[in-house]
């Protein structure tokens, strides 16, 4: 409990401030670490009293200062409790991620096809398309223990029923809030004076009869008779059932979702494009021709022989009218696809569209006013989040060598071998004999404890707000994978021969001695229970991680003097933070020399690679550990410079922060900005520029190597590789430079209830930490980049030995720019004889550029703005219209993303195309449609304390847009598009 012990030392001098008139010298002599305090509600723009504010409230918060008449230059969007209730989501994360500035946020509908990431079901925010790592998420202004060693918290572990508002700071804020706030800050603010009982019960299901969900929440708050003791507790349980695994082929979709049609890009080599035709052609019903559902001979004179029911061979139906050429290629097709034909081996629709997510959170806060305006408080959070997803069915294996004397081969194939004078052939299968899909189960547990003081004290005649706290948090993460094959066992088991006694055994004597059980991979056949247990053992991949965070903080805010235009506000403080992680993994994935959760489950086996592991089909987790410490000090000031009836009011705001990391040294952040409330009725200008920082996290620094099986296109052929990802301890901090300029026009006298804001942003990041994808590395190597070739092995004759090493590095710059628009208009309906009022809201973000320059020889700048296969469409918007009365409420919501492209670097053409290059390939169709979704909701007050509500998301059941790739994929981009379809929710709320 490092942070709590430090806080006790911190609270001792802080408690001296509780006495009126305590000397400033006493406070300033305390040198202890401290993070950001939540923005005070006092710094929001003045607005009329409202009961029905919705999701687009325009505010100008985003500072740690609270000063009379002060407006912050950094734009902030606030979502209050009324907004949250109207959106009626089972998880608060799903409501907040709708905001247009949040682009690339993860969740249970993302990473559904992932086995090895360890991030399945993780709910975390990303702003500006800059990634989760460049967005700082806080709870009551405090950092929260990460739920994964990439360094981000899981919003599912937050106490959600007591959240009163969520502030989203849409700009660089490192000087005020600390490292990681390059893209902005998302701060959840709880009600610390809540009294009474609040409850919520809701359920729902999709129109397809899946993803059933149930949420039950209750909170209680009370105080002592004299009002000095304040207690709040809450408990919540939520279950979202997810979708079942899809099937092989193109079968009509999961539970009747018929939109999946195996989209892909049919590719050729660059050299072939001298004919003036494009390299890539957009196709549907893509057929991978290197394997079939139950096995396919893929080279030699028997190429095209597939295996069906009972192992009976038949001639495979290639798409595109293709004929096998005997050398692994097929006429009318380009590696790896044909079009149409036998699609039964397609696995693209088999992954989860949404993971099952089960969450339980308990939260308590106790505060005691030791004097007027000064509170000592303690909080505790206990949370567990369980997720389950199905990455895919079967196990795609290509390039396997099968001997012609294999005991499981039908006589017709053996005779074919003899007739053609061959003793072996190449073979590919999706191993549909595995009846159950690969299943990944993840458990994330968190314990977090905070002890602190918060309140106002008088120092030398000035009232100061003091905030000091210590926090200790631990997250433990367990990942378990089942129904997955052990590759050396599979390879040995399918290589079977007939023994002298007529029985079928594994060919390898070593394998037989180690318990090998033969497995028939040729056709739709049933293997023995022992065979399945051997190739797909119950003791699948496992990972156990522990993440610890310790924080201590001290902050002071006050107005010690005034300028000619008003009081000058000052905030300063210090912070110390420690981040620690340790992870262990099973020896079959990691290597036998490493510590394991329970090594007795993984006995020694002579067939396995004991040096580096990587024996599983996927989920080869690795052991690792790391830690770093942070010391920070900051100061922020706001100086009014103008207060005139003629010229208006203006203030200048500035902040500086010095941060020292044990891993990467000292770095500075700063900001300077101002707000001018012009003499024009309701018109305000604001501008801010800042230097922001993000230090490399534990994952980027210390992550042990993670190996996944993948494929890349190399010299015109698809080859299997090991995708090896590892950390880099030599990384340096990223440096961001953010500039925002905008205006607010609110509550003009001629149109009460109207407000609009427009803000332009420009963010530049140097020394950006990036990792190239495996295909990018291969492409650059082919273009002659020797440093990238050094990270690959692509020509090994040994099956499974080819690899691409992927490592993060400081060799990139990122620049994004665009603008945000927010508008609202509230008006009563009394003029037309109706009760209540109407609220119209609109938020939109336009991304002009999002350019990443890797500074790698042979690469070019990549602009992902408007790339709808990524995270940042040109336009993303949210519109709401609501009618609210004392008795009922109705709301309509529209969500939209604009049309885009697959890649800004691709050249669209159908004929007379230039010769394609890896950096600028040609494609016949580079347009990816956007989407427009309509949601409907409403509530009815049954009594003054109880209301019933409903919500229908994706009312028109809009299908997601196809997201083709150059390899087999789920064919949809769940980061942008709704993949579940129409969803119904009903519930009841109570406030006593």
Q: What's the topology here?
A:
Layout: H1 2-16, H2 24-28, E1 57-59, E2 76-80, H3 81-87, H4 92-96, E3 135-139, E4 142-143, E5 163-169, H5 174-177, E6 184-190, E7 196-206, E8 213-223, E9 229-240, E10 264-267, E11 280-283, E12 286-288, E13 296-297, E14 305-307, E15 313-315, E16 337-339, E17 356-371, E18 374-389, E19 397-403, H6 411-420, E20 424-429, E21 439-459, E22 462-482, H7 487-494, E23 496-498, E24 504-506, H8 509-513, H9 529-535, E25 542-563, E26 566-585, H10 587-590, E27 624-644, E28 648-661, E29 665-677, E30 683-694, H11 698-702, E31 706-714, E32 717-726, E33 734-746, E34 754-770, H12 774-782, H13 786-789, E35 792-793, E36 803-807, E37 809-828, E38 837-853, E39 862-863, E40 875-884, E41 888-897, E42 900-901, E43 907-908, E44 922-923, E45 927-928, E46 931-941, E47 946-953, E48 983-991
Parallel strand pairs: 3-6, 32-36, 43-44
Antiparallel strand pairs: 1-2, 2-5, 3-4, 5-6, 7-8, 7-48, 8-9, 9-17, 10-11, 12-16, 13-20, 14-15, 17-18, 18-21, 19-20, 21-22, 22-25, 23-24, 25-26, 26-27, 27-28, 28-29, 29-30, 30-33, 31-32, 33-34, 34-37, 35-36, 37-38, 38-39, 38-40, 40-41, 41-46, 42-45, 46-47, 47-48
Signal peptide: 1-25
Keywords: Cell outer membrane, Membrane, Receptor, Signal, TonB box, Transmembrane, Transmembrane beta strand, Transport
Protein name: TonB-dependent receptor
């Amino acid at each position: 409990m490092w942070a709590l012990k430090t806080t006790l030392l911190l609270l001792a001098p802080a408690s001296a401030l509780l006495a009126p008139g305590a000397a400033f010298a006493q406070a300033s002599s305390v040198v202890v670490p401290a993070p950001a305090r939540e923005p005070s509600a006092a710094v929001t723009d003045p607005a009329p009293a409202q009961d029905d504010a919705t999701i687009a409230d325009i505010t100008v918060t985003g500072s740690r200062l609270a000063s009379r008449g002060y407006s912050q230059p950094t734009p902030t969007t606030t979502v209050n409790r009324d907004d949250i209730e109207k959106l009626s989501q089972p998880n608060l994360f799903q409501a907040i991620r709708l905001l247009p500035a949040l682009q690339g946020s993860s969740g249970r509908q993302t990473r559904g096809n992932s086995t090895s990431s360890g991030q399945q079901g993780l709910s975390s925010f990303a702003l500006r398309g800059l990634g989760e790592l460049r967005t700082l998420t806080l709870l009551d202004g405090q950092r929260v223990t990460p739920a994964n060693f990439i360094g981000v918290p899981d919003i599912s572990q937050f106490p959600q029923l007591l959240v009163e508002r969520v502030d989203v700071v849409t700009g660089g804020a490192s000087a005020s809030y600390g490292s990681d706030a390059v893209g902005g800050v998302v701060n959840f603010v709880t009600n610390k004076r809540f009294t009474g009982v609040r409850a919520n019960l809701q359920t729902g299901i999709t129109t397809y009869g899946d993803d059933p969900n149930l949420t039950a929440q209750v909170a209680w708050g009370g105080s002592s008779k004299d009002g000095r003791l304040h207690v709040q507790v809450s408990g919540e349980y939520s279950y979202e059932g997810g979708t079942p695994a899809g099937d092989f082929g193109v079968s009509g979709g999961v539970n009747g979702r018929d939109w999946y049609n195996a989209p892909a890009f049919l590719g050729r080599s660059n050299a072939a494009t001298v004919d003036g035709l494009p390299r890539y052609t957009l196709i549907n019903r893509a057929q991978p021709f290197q394997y079939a559902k139950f096995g396919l001979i893929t080279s030699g004179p028997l190429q095209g022989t597939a295996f069906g029911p009972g192992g009976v061979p038949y001639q495979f139906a290639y798409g595109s009218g293709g004929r096998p050429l005997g050398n692994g290629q097929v006429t009318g097709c380009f590696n790896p696809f044909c079009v149409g034909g036998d699609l039964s081996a397609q696995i693209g629709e088999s992954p989860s569209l949404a993971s099952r997510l089960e969450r339980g959170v308990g939260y308590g806060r106790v505060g005691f006013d030791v004097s007027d305006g000064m509170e000592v408080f303690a909080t505790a959070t206990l949370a567990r989040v369980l997720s389950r997803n199905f990455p895919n069915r079967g196990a795609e294996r290509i390039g396997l060598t099968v001997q012609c004397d294999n005991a499981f081969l039908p006589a017709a194939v053996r005779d074919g071998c003899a007739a053609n004078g061959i003793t072996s052939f190449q073979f590919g299968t999706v191993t549909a004999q595995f009846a159950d899909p690969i299943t990944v189960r993840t458990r994330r547990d968190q314990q977090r404890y905070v002890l602190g003081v918060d309140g106002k004290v008088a120092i030398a005649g000035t009232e100061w707000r003091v905030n000091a706290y210590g926090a200790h948090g631990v997250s433990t993460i367990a990942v378990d994978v089942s129904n997955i094959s052990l590759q050396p066992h599979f390879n040995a088991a399918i290589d079977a021969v007939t023994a002298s006694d007529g029985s079928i055994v594994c060919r390898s004597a070593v394998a037989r001695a180690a318990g090998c059980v033969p497995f028939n991979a040729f056709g739709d056949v049933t293997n023995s229970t022992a065979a399945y247990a051997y190739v797909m053992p119950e003791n699948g991949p496992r990972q156990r991680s522990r993440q610890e965070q310790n924080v201590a903080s001290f902050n002071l805010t006050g107005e010690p003097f005034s300028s000619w235009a008003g009081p000058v506000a000052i905030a300063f403080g210090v912070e110390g933070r420690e981040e620690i992680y340790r992870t262990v993994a099973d020896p079959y994935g990691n290597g036998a020399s490493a510590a394991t959760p329970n090594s007795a489950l993984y006995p020694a086996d002579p067939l396995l690679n004991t040096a580096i592991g990587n024996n599983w089909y996927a989920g080869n987790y690795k052991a690792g550990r790391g830690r770093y410490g942070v010391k920070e000090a900051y100061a922020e000031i706001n100086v009014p410079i103008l207060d005139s009836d003629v010229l208006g009011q203006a203030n200048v705001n500035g902040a500086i922060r010095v941060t020292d990391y044990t891993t990467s040294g000292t770095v500075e952040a700063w900001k300077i900005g101002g707000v001018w409330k012009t003499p024009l009725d309701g018109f305000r200008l604001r501008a801010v520029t800042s230097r922001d920082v993000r230090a490399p996290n534990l994952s980027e620094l210390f992550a042990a190597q993670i190996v996944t099986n993948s494929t890349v296109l190399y010299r015109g052929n698809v080859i299997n590789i090991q995708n090896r990802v590892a950390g880099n301890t030599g990384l340096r901090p990223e440096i961001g430079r953010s500039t925002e300029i905008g205006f607010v026009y609110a509550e003009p006298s001629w149109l009460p209830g109207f407000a609009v804001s427009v803000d332009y942003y420009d963010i530049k990041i140097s020394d950006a930490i990036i990792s190239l994808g495996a295909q990018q590395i291969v492409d650059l190597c082919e273009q002659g980049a020797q440093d990238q070739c050094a990270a690959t092995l692509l020509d090994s004759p040994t099956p499974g030995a080819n690899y691409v090493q992927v490592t993060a590095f400081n060799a990139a710059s990122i620049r994004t720019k665009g603008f945000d628009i927010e508008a609202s208009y509230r008006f009563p309906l009394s003029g037309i004889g109706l009760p209540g009022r109407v609220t119209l809201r609109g938020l939109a973000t336009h991304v002009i550029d999002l350019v990443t320059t890797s500074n790698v020889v042979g690469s070019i700048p990549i602009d992902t703005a408007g790339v709808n296969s990524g995270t940042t469409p040109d336009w993303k918007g949210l519109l709401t219209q609501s009618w609210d009365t004392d008795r009922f409420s109705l709301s309509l919501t529209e969500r939209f993303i604009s049309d885009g492209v697959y890649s800004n670097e691709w050249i669209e053409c159908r004929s007379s195309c230039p010769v394609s290059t890896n950096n600028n390939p040609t494609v016949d169709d580079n347009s990816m449609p956007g989407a427009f979704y309509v949601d409907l909701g409403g509530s009815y007050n049954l009594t003054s304390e109880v209301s019933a509500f409903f919500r229908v998301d994706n009312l028109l059941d809009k299908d997601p847009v196809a997201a083709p790739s150059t390899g087999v994929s789920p064919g949809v981009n769940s980061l942008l598009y709704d993949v579940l379809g129409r969803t119904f929710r009903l519930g009841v709320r109570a406030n006593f």
